[in-house]
Amino acid sequence: MSMEHKAFVFDWEAFTGELSKILENALLTNNSEQLVSFIKDNLEFIKDPCEGEPLDSEWEAGMELDDVHQWGDLALTKFYNPQDDIGLGYGWENAQNLILEEGGKDCALLGSPFGPSQNYFDAGKMGSYFQSASQVQEILQWLEELQQKKPALFPVLNDALKMLQKAAAVNKGIYVTF
């Protein structure tokens, strides 16, 4: 069964400056208290991660208080627009396999997990990954060079190139989730 690759232009720099330590601590301790405070302090910037809409007055009612991943999912929306999915959908594995066959990095279309290895952040329980702006630039450059060397690969790599180009154009990272 193939999983749907969802990706979003992500402000990695702001995330590392404002939320990364809070989220990592929550994942280490399984304590959501600081995440909830972050959300409340930034409520005007937080959106529903599924619909992308601003939160309504009943936003806390459906939350599981002990799930740091769910709270983290909500807090992360300060750094991306949930309505602007630039992911590769269900066909991402074809591009990923091709990249690996050509000697590319395993993380080219994903990124790296975030958090402690015993409890990586994973809101959807199917994988969540991040790329910084510099990683996006590096992977994009590699893919563009590969495309120039082997133009026949363009149909398979075109959507991946577009995804990375959108993030690179605004000097941002990427958040990938399934």
Characteristics of this structure?
three-stranded antiparallel beta sheet
Sequence-ordered SSE layout with sheet pairings:
Blueprint: E1 6-10, H1 12-18, H2 20-29, H3 33-41, H4 68-76, H5 92-101, E2 128-131, H6 133-149, H7 154-169, E3 173-177
Antiparallel strand pairs: 1-3, 2-3
Helix pairs in contact: 3-4, 6-7
Describe the structure.
The chain has helices at residues 12-18, 20-29, 33-41, 68-76, 92-101, 133-149, 154-169; strands at 6-10, 128-131, 173-177. It starts with 5 loop residues before the first strand and ends with a strand. 44% of the residues lie in helices and 8% in strands. The protein has a 3-stranded antiparallel β-sheet with strand order 1-3-2. It is built from 7 helices and 3 strands, in the order E-H-H-H-H-H-E-H-H-E. Helix 3 (33-41) packs parallel to helix 4 and helix 6 (133-149) runs antiparallel to helix 7 (154-169). The longest helix is centred in the last third of the chain and has 17 residues, at 133-149. The model has no long low-confidence stretch (mean pLDDT 94). The chain has 178 residues and is mainly α. The chain has one domain.
Briefly note the structural class of the backbone.
Answer: mainly alpha
Whole-number count of domains: 1
Helix content: 40-55%
* Residue fraction in strands: 5-15%
Q: What would you report as the Rg, rounded to the nearest angstrom? A: 17 Å
- Report how far apart the termini are: 12 Å
> What shape does the CA trace take?
elongated
